# Entry
Amino acid sequence: MTKTYFDLKTCAIFSLVTLFTISTLAQTNLSRKKADQIAAAELQTQMELQKPKAEAEWAAHQIQYKNFIMKFTTQIFGDKPAGGRSLYISLHGGGGTAPRVNDQQWENQKKLYKLKEGVYFVPRSPVDAWNMWHDYPMDELLTEVIKSEIVMDDVNPDKVYVMGYSAGGDGVFQLAPRLPDYWAAASMMAGHPGDAQILNLKNVPFMAFVGGKDAAYHRNELVAQWGKRLDSLQQVYPGNFTHETHVYPDMPHWMNRKDTIAVPWLASYTRNTLPKDVIWIRG
# Structure
């Protein structure tokens, strides 16, 4: 039932009600072929329902959730694969500072990484705060991004990645474990882990970068410790907690683009839609 489960997971991105409906039907001794047909039809229905909203968002270059508005830009690289494009959500730095500073960081993030293939999606945080990428309603906004990207740019839901620099790295530390069923892999650059739930990354490949001289908020020490924790977890759970940690001894907060090696690393992973088991700790 692997293919059917893939379809169910894709439907679940759009609606938990849809997932429940199809799962209920699957209990009535449906054949694999029939279950696949039902899942595909329901997915198409959900995509058609999402399309008007997505088209309006893309025309305005912004997504709204309640009274929060998140502007964004997209760039498309390479030819579309048969299974759909990859999606890289790239979170800018800044934080609790003047809006013009965060605007500048947003502009910088747009140029920071280049893809061989995929959609490079760069949002502008709807707030100017230290926790801009992991406070309410960021989970809801990013799930809307994924739904609309599936509709607008034919994104493959199994090739969705999250990455971010500085305050964006703070966001990746939080969002990768909080939404582990959405990501194929994640990459954190120059951020701070805070109270992120590392155990939730059992099935999410995670890459981390920091400059050895990036001592503000003890980033250099804490990222190195995070890597060692993942080393230990990988020994306890062989085949899980896939990761790489890069601490560049002579680098400050800006790592002079050494972190760009994350892009091909991320691209090598596909979302595990049917893991053998999961660890979930609610933050």
